[in-house]
Structure to design on (663 residues):
């Protein structure tokens, strides 16, 4: 295929490659060892990486879900370092990198209100500006590599304890090659008022990115973490296999928001999991707009009495895209509740699949589950699937699931066009209305951007 | 409009025991499934066909039911409507997988699927997987699944009217199941099947 990407990708530009260090293409134990050495990691991490590499080779690709057969693991660069040390102020950043950020709108995020920016360019966090207040209240927010070197005890205690290396092939791949990602530690009782944000970006051809994020919210604390990403267009496939582990202690509340807009040659295969202790709340807000293939099922393990889990998600699949996303909820304790709301849109031959699992274990009495999936099909070439699994092993529970699939309302379109709005804009309005229950939960600047993106995607639909 | 005048086809899947059923005539096709394990693949390849699938499951002791239904719309302008209700006691198990598949050219199909389960014992295991695969866009498909125990308030109400817990439970379970038979009788299927399923 000469040009598989035939729509006008707004952020489709690629800055000249600046990477200071770049590992050779392909996989080998040597590269794993090299990465660990360059990063000056403790021995246990080196060992964990090497062990993970073996597990990665042993594990098979999943036989369900999206088609992954085209991924060529040999043809990727597994590590690159764009500047040699972490920059602390905006002025120090190289001009090219600044320009890239300008285009995706980081400067807006610089404004006082949006304090905690940790922007990822290639595989390491090179720029972060964390307000003094974070230090004052004892909150740790840094990239994972810094986290490991500065707080090895905390990292060692939690790292890979929720998503073990052998969990799946891509978790193993990430554990072997991880680089970058965020490390967040919120002490007991601290409420972080501002959302912590990280911008992710892949800027190197054939370069796989494996961020590793660890969030620990101690008893009674609150934090909102946001990741948003957008990437330039490449001619070869890129792989993004992140691992995110979140620990929500007793009475704590964590919200994790993702706005994913990889260019649509990226394989986005992510493992995200949270553990919720007694009376805690874990919320995943997951918006998948870009990538060629996404497989992502944020999950919550409701381990403590009264814990709550929630996943709100939007999936959009345009031409050549397959979004295989969903959520997983595991009820282990009494009085736990979970809610999953999924909205998906397929257009121009795209395919969205909701795939979810709800499991209520014996003893999780008085638990309740609510799952709702709505899908919108924009044309006759597109496809929508719903695969919810519900395993109930306890009788004193209430489990509800509902799903609908339909096309965009012809009458609503007619009404809007009769008011002088052209068809494309009308479709945009209806789609934005359809996803509104999720977009209203994300910060304003993101929902504005998301609405604009949806409008942009829809405008490609004519002719 | 008189129901008798229309084409109506009644199939008791538990007796026919076939894996695949072809619906190639317009009119009503009623499928009844009860305490049956296996695949029921219904291929709908006729315009104006109305397919109703009704299922009733009562699980006791070590009963283990595995039901797999497929509502496969191969051509459009038709309806399929599935309702499977189950009541599970003791250590009974129910694994239900239901698929609605709408092919690309099956435009203007309407498909519904509903699975409701009552759990009467903590040892019961229920696995419900209502799947949708939709390849046409001018369609409306919904599915729903609920699993839980008897409504506490309804039980309480009946008890305040002087019914014992046991009787109140029976009344509620019978009502839950009777719904399926009422719907069948609305389509003109005789209602004598219900008697068999009443809990005594």
């Amino acid at each position: 295929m000469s040009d598989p990407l035939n729509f006008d990708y707004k952020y489709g530009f690629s800055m000249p490659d600046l990477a200071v260090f770049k590992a050779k293409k392909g996989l080998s134990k040597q590269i794993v060892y090299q990465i660990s050495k360059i990063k000056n990691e403790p021995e246990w991490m080196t060992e964990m990486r090497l062990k993970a590499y073996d597990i990665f080779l042993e594990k098979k690709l999943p036989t369900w879900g999206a088609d992954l057969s085209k991924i060529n693991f040999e043809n990727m660069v597994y590590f690159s370092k764009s500047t040699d040390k972490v920059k602390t102020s905006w002025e120090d950043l190289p001009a090219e990198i600044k320009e890239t950020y300008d285009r995706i709108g980081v400067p807006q995020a610089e404004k006082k209100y949006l304090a905690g920016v940790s922007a990822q360019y290639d595989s390491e966090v090179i720029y972060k500006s964390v307000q003094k207040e974070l230090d004052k209240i004892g909150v740790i927010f840094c990239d994972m590599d810094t986290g490991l070197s500065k707080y090895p005890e905390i990292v060692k205690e939690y790292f890979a304890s929720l998503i073990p290396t052998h969990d799946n092939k891509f978790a193993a791949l990430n554990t072997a090659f991880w680089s970058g990602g965020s490390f967040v530690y919120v002490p007991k009782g601290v409420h972080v008022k501002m959302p912590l944000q990280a911008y992710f970006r892949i800027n190197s051809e054939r370069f796989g990115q494996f961020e590793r994020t660890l969030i620990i919210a101690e008893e009674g604390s609150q934090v909102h973490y946001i990741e948003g990403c957008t990437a330039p267009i490449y001619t070869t496939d890129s792989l993004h296999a992140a691992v995110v582990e979140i620990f929500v202690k007793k009475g704590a509340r964590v919200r994790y928001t993702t706005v994913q807009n990889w260019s649509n040659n990226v394989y986005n295969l992510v493992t995200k999991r949270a553990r919720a202790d007694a009376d805690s709340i874990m919320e995943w807000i997951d918006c998948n707009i870009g990538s060629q293939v996404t497989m992502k099922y944020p999950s919550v393990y409701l381990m403590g009495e009264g814990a709550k889990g929630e996943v709100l998600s939007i999936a959009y699949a345009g031409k050549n895209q397959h979004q295989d996303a969903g959520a997983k909820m595991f009820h282990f304790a009494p009085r736990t509740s979970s809610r999953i709301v999924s909205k998906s849109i397929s257009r121009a031959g795209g395919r969205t699949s909701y795939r979810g699992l709800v499991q209520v274990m014996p003893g999780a009495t008085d638990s309740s589950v609510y799952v709702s999936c709505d899908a919108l099909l924009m044309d006759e070439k597109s496809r929508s699937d719903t695969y919810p699994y519900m395993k109930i092993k306890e009788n004193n529970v209430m489990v509800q699931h509902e799903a609908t699939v339909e096309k965009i309302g012809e009458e609503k379109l007619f009404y809007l066009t009769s008011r002088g709005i052209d068809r494309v804009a009308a479709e945009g309005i209806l789609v934005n209305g359809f996803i509104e229950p999720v977009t209203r939960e994300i910060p304003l600047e993101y929902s504005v951007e998301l609405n604009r993106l949806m409008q942009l995607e829809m405008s490609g639909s004519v002719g | 409009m008189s129901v008798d005048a229309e084409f109506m086809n009644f199939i008791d899947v538990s007796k026919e025991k076939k894996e695949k059923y072809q619906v190639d005539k317009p009119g009503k096709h009623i499928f009844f499934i009860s305490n049956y394990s296996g695949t029921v693949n219904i291929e709908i390849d006729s315009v104006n066909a109305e397919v109703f699938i009704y299922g009733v499951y009562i699980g006791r002791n070590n009963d283990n039911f595995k039901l797999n239904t497929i509502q496969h719309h191969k051509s459009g302008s038709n309806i399929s409507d599935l309702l499977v209700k189950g009541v599970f006691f003791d250590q009974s198990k129910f694994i239900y997988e239901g698929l609605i598949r709408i092919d690309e050219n099956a435009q203007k199909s309407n498909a519904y699927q509903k699975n409701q389960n009552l759990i009467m014992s903590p040892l019961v295991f229920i696995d419900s997987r209502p799947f949708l695969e939709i390849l046409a866009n001018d369609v409306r498909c919904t599915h729903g699944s609920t699993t839980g125990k008897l409504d506490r308030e309804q039980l309480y109400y009946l008890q305040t009217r002087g019914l014992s817990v046991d009787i109140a439970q029976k009344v509620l379970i019978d009502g839950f199941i009777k719904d399926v038979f009422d719907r069948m009788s609305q389509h003109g299927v005789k209602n004598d099947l219900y008697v068999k399923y009443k809990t005594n």
About this structure: The interface with chain B takes residues 362, 375, 377-380, 382-407 of chain A (CB under 8 Å). Residues 309-407 of chain A form one domain.
